Amino acid sequence: MFLKISLCALSLLSINAFAAPLTIEESRIEQATKIMPDVLSTFINDINDFEKKWLKVDNYFKAEKLVSLYSDNMWVKAKKQIISSNSFDDRPLYWTRLLSSKVLREKSPAFEMTKSQKITLLDILEQGSRGRTELNYTKGTMKKILLTGFDPFLLDKNINQSNPSGVAALLMDGQIIQYNGITAEINTVMIPVRYEDFDKGTIEALLAPYYALNNVDMIVTVSMGRKEFDLERFPGKRRSVTAPDNLNVLSGGTKTSPVISQLHDRPLPGNEFVEFSLPVKAMQLANGPYKIIDNNKITTLDKTFKAKSITELKNQTAVSGSGGGYLSNEISYRSIRLRNQLKSDIPTGHIHTPRIQQFEPEVEKKIIMQINSMLEHSLIAL
């Protein structure tokens, strides 16, 4: 009965003959509904209510207000749901966002909307549902930490893939941690796995105010990686993987011909490698079942080796940073490059979590607890 209700409700969002083309991410909804209907129906009542209101809205001002409130609530409800359900599941937020953007793309409100207005509303949906509009430190703690997670990715391989970094972002947003009498409030943001967003400067737009004002005490980017925890010491500048992003766009780079990404239609500036500034020794004292590796292994056009210092890399061409050649390495490179450019002293770096297969809540629970311990131990060094 539950399955029938969920599928029936989701069918209300079916494509009509005059709909705008779906994005690659939105086109996966049909398959995802068949594979994990419980995930896609988590917030179906909210989606259906939003659609009803959307169809009735009769001017752009009301439409903007509706989408803004709805997207902000999506982020808040997703955080509450993952905590109350104890599910360690980031997937409902990802798929609810896509079901909602599908409504905006396919359904027409009760007024004539321009293309630019629709683009703006889709962006408002993105920003609010990723936590971008809720970045306020209000708890009066001694320290402030900003943490980013990623959407699930490689979904054509595993449509039901989860991402521990996304789980961390949902569970840790607004939380207070403490260690040896030092307290810190954590704020988080969810980052899309899309090359286009990076090229348009979404990471720089997010982080520049913090680096310019030095008004947080640590910035930590997180993504899913290898067997253990890796703290990525030397992120590289170039893209070199052949794995697609969530829009099935390729990086354009290879191991023999790595490419430089863009920043507002120009090549991303900066050195081939940068170095993180996380309190690595303190973080390695964290409790948990996984090793915490200070990863300094990189690949240049000449060789693969463990670099002892950033000076060793001065005249090298990056193929893979210690974080690889994908967007997880790139968010680390961009954040550190921007920190250095703005002459900030905020400790910054990337945590690669252990890899999971599709969705493993018990494993993800262990991963999140160890990330929490890493952040707690870092407080003594901030």
What does this structure look like?
With 382 residues, the protein is of the alpha/beta class. The chain has helices at residues 2-11, 24-27, 29-35, 37-40, 44-56, 60-85, 91-106, 115-129, 164-172, 195-199, 202-213, 280-283, 327-341, 361-378; strands spanning 143-150, 176-179, 182-191, 218-224, 229-232, 238-239, 259-260, 292-295, 297-300, 304-306, 318-320, 348-353. Strands 2-3-1-4-12-5-8 form a seven-stranded mixed β-sheet, with helices on both faces. A three-stranded antiparallel β-sheet has the order 10-9-11, with no helix packed on it. Strand 9 (297-300) and strand 10 (304-306) form a beta hairpin. The chain is globular.
Number of structural units classed as domains: 2
- The CATH architecture of the largest domain would be 3-Layer(aba) Sandwich
Stated plainly, the CATH topology of the largest domain is called: Aminopeptidase
Please tally the helical runs, counting DSSP H or I stretches of 4 or more residues.
Answer: 14
In round numbers, the mean pLDDT is 94
Write the element-wise H/E pattern from the N-terminal end onward.
Answer: HHHHHHHHEHEEHHEEEEHEEEEHEH
Distance between the termini: 53 Å
Global structural class: alpha/beta
Helix fraction by DSSP (H/I, runs of at least 4): 40-55%
CATH superfamily of the largest domain: Peptidase C15, pyroglutamyl peptidase I-like
